[in-house]
Amino acid sequence: MLRHFLRIEIDNDLLTAMAERWRPETHTFHLPEGEMTITLKDVAILTGLPISGDAIIGSTTKPEGGWGPLIRDRLGFDMPTTTPIQGRGHPPLNAGQVSVPWLVSHIQQEVEINDETPEEQVERYARIYLIGLVGGFLFPDKSNRWIQGIWLPLLTGDWDAIGEKSWGSAVLAGVYRELCTCSKVGAKQAGAAMFILQLWVWEHLPMFAPPDPRPYRRNDDELNFLQNLPYGVKWIGANTNDHQPEHSLLFYRSELDKPWWNQVIWDPYPREVGELHHLRHPLDHETWLCKVPL
């Protein structure tokens, strides 16, 4: 389901303005009328990521024998550790990080998958795609050029087990941590899955949202398309209006200073959306009501 979010246009000015309102002490946005924050429910409903599975934990230390053998075992090919990337001073495998451009170019050189492709090779491609999706989209670094090798052990083994892990809570913790970092004076970039913050703002603070390109209504023509996808998919194709002067960083800063509490939508998700998510992940409802430290 995550692949649909790759097409969402990011409004950098909006995210910057929200990061300026973030307070690391409380993990909340401090606004004129009070505090708000992204919750597990928001992540679960908007992205469809499970939040009630096993925790995303593992080792961050260099594996015995180095990263090369682990990558060869998981991805099925060797990565150069000495040959620099064209135009760059670092090799494709550098200090436990895999180069995204090199990985993409390597896959494009392979034979196209068809009905006669061996299952083992199809699975290898699928794992490479998952590693790119998780390491490069859900947990990206600030450059968007490197994927941490620590994700490799988590994306191997049983396919169903991979999908049942609590990816939603890990992503939310990553967003919290990145907001704590980029809210400091002098910060210029942000990693993590910041598209979730943008979707959250659009849902809860509709005065900042672009026109909804896919309204989610019962009996809507696109309900059949949306009912098996996360609620946030409805924003695909929305124009962030970055090119318009009124949607600038100064505009967002000014608007966030105004008392607009009567415009906040505290629970923006229709009942049928929660019911559909419950069918996909029955235990999530109990989890997102818990009051526990992340």
From TrEMBL:
Pfam families hit by this protein: PMD
Annotated transmembrane regions: none
GO biological process annotation, one example: meristem maintenance
InterPro entries tied to this protein: AminoTfrase-like_pln_mobile, MAIN-like
Ranges for domain Aminotransferase-like plant mobile: 7-276
Alphabetized PANTHER family for the sequence: PROTEIN MAIN-LIKE 2, PROTEIN MAINTENANCE OF MERISTEMS-LIKE
Name by which UniProt lists this protein: Aminotransferase-like plant mobile domain-containing protein
Species this protein is from: Linum tenue
